[in-house]
Each structure stands twice: as structure tokens, then as C-alpha cells.
Amino acid sequence: MSEVTPEIKARVEELRREIDHHNYLYYVLDKPGITDAQYDQLMQQLIQLEAAHPELITPDSPTQRVGGQVQQGFQAVPHRVPMLSLGNAFGEADLREFDRRVRTNLPGEEVEYVVELKIDGLAVSLWYENGLLVRGATRGNGEYGEDITANLRTVKAIPLRLKEDVPFLEVRGEAYMPKDSFVRLNEAREEAGEPLFANPRNAAAGSLRQLDPGVTASRNLSIFMYAIGHLEGPGPRSHAAALAWLKQLGFRVNQHYKVCQDISQVIDYCAKWHEKRFDLPYAIDGLVIKVNSLDQQQRLGATLKSPRWAIAYKFPAEQAVSTIKDIILRVGRTGVLTPTAILEPVQLAGTTVSRATLHNEDIIRQKDIRIGDKALIQKAGDIIPEVLQVFPEQRTGEERVFAMPATCPECDAPVVRVPGEAAHRCTNRNCPAIFREGIIHFVSRGAMDITGLGESIVTQLIKAGLVKDPADLYSLRYEDLIKLERMGARSSQNLLDAIEASKNNSLARLLFALGIRHVGERAAKILARQFGSMQALMAATVEDLTVIPEIGPKIAESVVDYFSRPDNRRLVERLARAGVNMQENKGQPDPANQPLAGKTFVVTGTLGAFSRQEAQEAIEKLGGKVSSSVSKKTDYVVVGENPGSKYDKARQLGIPILKEEEFIALLNNR
């Protein structure tokens, strides 16, 4: 072990400060200051210095977020101040009754309210001593919670050290899973035959109760802090001031709160969020109304169950009744047969819904879902339409019971259900549906991102015998494409250009595109950054892989199994010969030097030429950043048809607004 010089110690402390600062910019302010590659370089320097000088490792070091030990269980810990539940209000009358009770107990006093979004997640408590995170716990029964400190440390929006050395602070917040992360997690679990989470709240709760913190770290959780539970020493005098102070300490605080002078303003603010909530990147199930003055809160006190100074306004459930016209099956890229209900179209949560996922045969049987049934449809966390229940009493006798087939609907190969899994799978590795879905995945936005190569073109290429594996895409010629339906001269050349451009994608994108089981986008990025090249990863053992934070045995075994197969190794070799990048960051332009570097965009409304995701990726390719909310730090707001409240806020703040044609011109004139 080499000597710790003052220079080494100073460099370690400098790296920690710099990494903590960039974590704050990225995870709290949503305003990254450096590229991923630059961040990785800083982290790697710190890891190497701490490995060489372990005596310098501290509990608040950024390297210590994910521990290597799997926990045996969760210990019950007491809350210093009980974490009470809130009473509920379901309409204007309930809110006015709450206001009447408050004013009755505070006769003659002026009362302000703070209205906040009610994040649909898991309530947690964080303890800080002298500015250092020492404990994190669930709400539990309000008196006692479970100690989940190791898991909460993996949530990068939670500071391990505060920006001020507060002697003791207990702060409360709501840990949650963003909508897009929830969708990706359930898609991966469905392909793996694992039970699905019903909504983002359950996904967040399940992720935080993992015995392996590495699993929690892989789930992309975030958090909003909403209250001070206990503070030693002087503190803010109002709830609004407390939120501002928490933000000053380095916590992530939701910006969508309002101080209201009376209950009528509260009611108006609640009404505004009935529709606006669908634009949020996270799920909310209502709003929370609190008396602003902390002195008044203390004097109002609490019942045994809930505080008298706060109430939760709950949104009515987004549900609709429809008829199940049919149940169809889709074979995914791993061979899983997924049943989908075809519905009579209904309006739900601001969109027309004509399909609902049924997930697997077990759920169909549990709910006794039949073709022809009247069904109650609900969006899980306002995201995915699902069949909540059917109405057997309305059956006419013409309904049909659905059963999973014994053979694949695409290739007639036997279908099996693996013990311990909920999914039925096609046993034919050469099933045309598995192959087609694999190619569609390979070219998708999160993978190789080949614009213009959608499902229709992929299907035509396969039928014409032009594509037998992903490597064949890089051998396509203009004369091959021009013969396809709806492919003219310009679209054919554009597609060839997109295929050529995809050769320069990162190794992480390629790894995800290969469709290795259990390797999602995050795992692909971790593997690419850790090994640096495809060759190094292909030579890795299970032992090499399992020592990497967030890469568990399941992923490790799947990666080793994938590269042990000769056909997969041949595919990688063919891709390499075609010129596809096999090294992380090779040929990748530095986003800091891109035309839109440092610019933050918000996209609202429906665009004609892009989906929301496509617009985001176009911006990010040119070094820009896309935010989910409008603030003074927003540089541009891109507006499509039927824009929401973000458009109004942009106008109020004087932020430049781009119509779609102006946005396209900006991209093209880079």
C-alpha cells in the first residue's frame, strides 16, 4: 500500500466534491454540466485512488452508493416523530369542510395553504447527522418503519452529504419510479416470464425492499422531498420556506406547489391538475393541502391517525367500460406469447383506448376474462390500459373462454410454460416472429436507432430474403430498397444513410440491440463502460461480471451464455466486418461540442413528423437536453398540436417557442 500524500488526499476530496456537484446538477436540477464519458472518467479516477488507498474511503463517497453485500432482512426502526397518514378529500365539499375545521380551531387567524402534488410512490424518512446520511426507512405503520438505508443510498437524487452541516435533520419524501422506467421494467419482466408490477407505486415499493441493493440501483428510482420531520436548532417558520430550505440543502423538491390565500384558490389549483397530470413523467394520485404556518400546524395537532393541518385531495379513478371484442397473441423477441384484449374504442385519461394488455394466462383466469365480456378498463398509473374486472352478470351466453394455444400462432412449434414463470414461450428458436421481433428491436430507438426502418419495412425485407440476421442490414443496397412498397428514391437513400450512420453508435447501444436476455439499456451501458470493447466482454466470465455493481448472477449468466453460442459469435464478427463500432465511445461526437450543447428543450403537444421520443432523441443527438417541465432555465419549448400547460408557462416566462417547422429547421441548420 503506497503512502497517502497530501496531494493524493486533496485530489480524492476534490473528486468527491466534483462528482457530488455533477450528481446534484443531473439528478436534482435536471441540468447536466458534463457528458457521461467525462463523468465516468471522474468516477474511475476516484475508484482507482480509493482502491489504492482504502483508508481514504468515507461513507459519503460517491463510490459507496451501491454496497456489495446482500442483506438478510430489514430491521424495524422507530420514527422520532410518527409518520401519520392523511385524511382524504374527494371533491370541493370535502375541501371546504377541511377549511371550516381548520378555521374553527384557529378562530380569527389568517390561514394560508400550500398545495403540492401527491406523488404516487413510497413514503420514506431520511436521517442526517452533521450533514451525513445515516439512516433511511419506510413509513411502515407510522410508528416503526423498515431500515432500507442501503437501498436508499443507491437513489442518486438523495444526497449522501448535505450542502450544510446540520446537527440533526429528519426529512421526509416520496420515492417513485418514472413512468418510462416503469414501462421498460414491466416489458423486461414480461419477456422474462416474471410477475408484473401493477403500477409505478408498487414497482417503487418492490424495488426499495430488495435484499440486494444492486437490484434497487438498476431500477432508476428518484425522489421528491416534501417535509421536515424533525430538526435540531432553529429552522423555517412556514412550510413553503421549509421546501425552499430543503432545496438549498441539496434535496430534490417538486416545483409544482402553490401558496394559496384561501380555500377557493386551493380548489382552483386542484381542478387544474385533473388533466395536466397526464403530461407529467411520473404518476400522481392527487394533491396534498397543508396549512403553511408551522406554528399553526403545531397548534392544530393531530388525531391518532392523521394531522389536522393537512388533507389529501384524491383524483377520481380514470376508468371506462368497454367490450372485449377479441383476444389476440403477439410473439415477442424472446418467444413469449402475450395476450392482448381488443376493445371497443373508449376515451380514457385523455386518449382513445382500443387495446389493453392481459399479460398472461394466469391473469385471464384469475379475472375470468372472456371474449365478449363487458369490462372495466383502467390505466395503471395513468400509463398502460388494463382490464380491471369484467361483469359476469351482464353475460348473454355468447361469450367465449380464452385458452393459450398448445402451438405457436406464428410457426406451429410447441408452446411451453417453464416452471416458476407466468409466460408461455415458443420453443422454436428460428420462429419467424422471434426473428422479426429481434430485428425490430435491433433497429429500435433505444438500440441502433435506424430511422425509417419500421415494422412494415422489416417484414418486407425478411419476406424478400434480404435480411436473415441483423448483419444483413449492413449489406442492403439501393436497388434492394427501391423495389419495396412505399419506398421511393429519397426514402431508400435516407434509409441507407441511417444504416450507415448507425455503425458509429456506442457499444452500449449495440449490446442492447443484440437482445441478450436480461440486458436492458442500463445494464448495457454499465457493461460497455466497464469492459470498453466487445472483445473484452466476450471473454468475460460469470465471476468477472458479478463483481460489477448492479450486474447480478442472472445478467452475468445470460451474457456468458449468449457469447458461448457459435451463431451469436459469428453474428458479432459479421457486424464488426461490416464496420459496426465495437468499442465504447469510439467515433462518438462529444455532446459538449455539439450544436445544441447546453440548451434545454421542453416538448409539448402532438408533433406530426416526430413522436415525443423521436424529438427527444433528435435533440440529444445534437448535444441538447430535454426536460419534462418548463422553468427559467428552459431555452426552447417545442409546441405541437393541442399543447398543454407547458405552453402557457413558457409564454408567461418569455421562453422562445418553436413551432414544429421551426424545430425541424433548427435541427437541419445545425
TrEMBL record:
<dbReference type="Pfam" id="PF03120">
    <property type="entry name" value="OB_DNA_ligase"/>
</dbReference>
<dbReference type="InterPro" id="IPR041663">
    <property type="entry name" value="DisA/LigA_HHH"/>
</dbReference>
<dbReference type="InterPro" id="IPR036420">
    <property type="entry name" value="BRCT_dom_sf"/>
</dbReference>
<feature type="binding site">
    <location>
        <position position="411"/>
    </location>
    <ligand>
        <name>Zn(2+)</name>
    </ligand>
</feature>
<dbReference type="GO" id="GO:0003911">
    <property type="term" value="F:DNA ligase (NAD+) activity"/>
</dbReference>
<keyword id="KW-0464">Manganese</keyword>
<keyword id="KW-0227">DNA damage</keyword>
<keyword id="KW-0460">Magnesium</keyword>
<dbReference type="GO" id="GO:0006260">
    <property type="term" value="P:DNA replication"/>
</dbReference>
<keyword id="KW-0235">DNA replication</keyword>
<protein>
    <recommendedName>
        <fullName>DNA ligase</fullName>
        <ecNumber>6.5.1.2</ecNumber>
    </recommendedName>
</protein>
<feature type="binding site">
    <location>
        <position position="139"/>
    </location>
    <ligand>
        <name>NAD(+)</name>
    </ligand>
</feature>
<dbReference type="InterPro" id="IPR004150">
    <property type="entry name" value="NAD_DNA_ligase_OB"/>
</dbReference>
<comment type="similarity">
    <text>Belongs to the NAD-dependent DNA ligase family. LigA subfamily.</text>
</comment>
<dbReference type="GO" id="GO:0005829">
    <property type="term" value="C:cytosol"/>
</dbReference>
<dbReference type="Pfam" id="PF12826">
    <property type="entry name" value="HHH_2"/>
</dbReference>
<keyword id="KW-0436">Ligase</keyword>
<dbReference type="InterPro" id="IPR004149">
    <property type="entry name" value="Znf_DNAligase_C4"/>
</dbReference>
<dbReference type="InterPro" id="IPR001357">
    <property type="entry name" value="BRCT_dom"/>
</dbReference>
<dbReference type="InterPro" id="IPR013839">
    <property type="entry name" value="DNAligase_adenylation"/>
</dbReference>
<dbReference type="InterPro" id="IPR018239">
    <property type="entry name" value="DNA_ligase_AS"/>
</dbReference>
<feature type="domain" description="BRCT">
    <location>
        <begin position="591"/>
        <end position="670"/>
    </location>
</feature>
<dbReference type="Pfam" id="PF00533">
    <property type="entry name" value="BRCT"/>
</dbReference>
<feature type="binding site">
    <location>
        <position position="116"/>
    </location>
    <ligand>
        <name>NAD(+)</name>
    </ligand>
</feature>
<keyword id="KW-0520">NAD</keyword>
<dbReference type="InterPro" id="IPR003583">
    <property type="entry name" value="Hlx-hairpin-Hlx_DNA-bd_motif"/>
</dbReference>
<dbReference type="Pfam" id="PF01653">
    <property type="entry name" value="DNA_ligase_aden"/>
</dbReference>
<keyword id="KW-0479">Metal-binding</keyword>
<feature type="binding site">
    <location>
        <position position="314"/>
    </location>
    <ligand>
        <name>NAD(+)</name>
    </ligand>
</feature>
<dbReference type="GO" id="GO:0003677">
    <property type="term" value="F:DNA binding"/>
</dbReference>
<dbReference type="InterPro" id="IPR033136">
    <property type="entry name" value="DNA_ligase_CS"/>
</dbReference>
<feature type="binding site">
    <location>
        <position position="431"/>
    </location>
    <ligand>
        <name>Zn(2+)</name>
    </ligand>
</feature>
<dbReference type="GO" id="GO:0006281">
    <property type="term" value="P:DNA repair"/>
</dbReference>
<feature type="binding site">
    <location>
        <begin position="36"/>
        <end position="40"/>
    </location>
    <ligand>
        <name>NAD(+)</name>
    </ligand>
</feature>
<feature type="binding site">
    <location>
        <position position="290"/>
    </location>
    <ligand>
        <name>NAD(+)</name>
    </ligand>
</feature>
<keyword id="KW-0234">DNA repair</keyword>
<comment type="function">
    <text>DNA ligase that catalyzes the formation of phosphodiester linkages between 5'-phosphoryl and 3'-hydroxyl groups in double-stranded DNA using NAD as a coenzyme and as the energy source for the reaction. It is essential for DNA replication and repair of damaged DNA.</text>
</comment>
<dbReference type="InterPro" id="IPR012340">
    <property type="entry name" value="NA-bd_OB-fold"/>
</dbReference>
<feature type="binding site">
    <location>
        <position position="174"/>
    </location>
    <ligand>
        <name>NAD(+)</name>
    </ligand>
</feature>
<feature type="binding site">
    <location>
        <position position="408"/>
    </location>
    <ligand>
        <name>Zn(2+)</name>
    </ligand>
</feature>
<keyword id="KW-0862">Zinc</keyword>
<feature type="binding site">
    <location>
        <begin position="85"/>
        <end position="86"/>
    </location>
    <ligand>
        <name>NAD(+)</name>
    </ligand>
</feature>
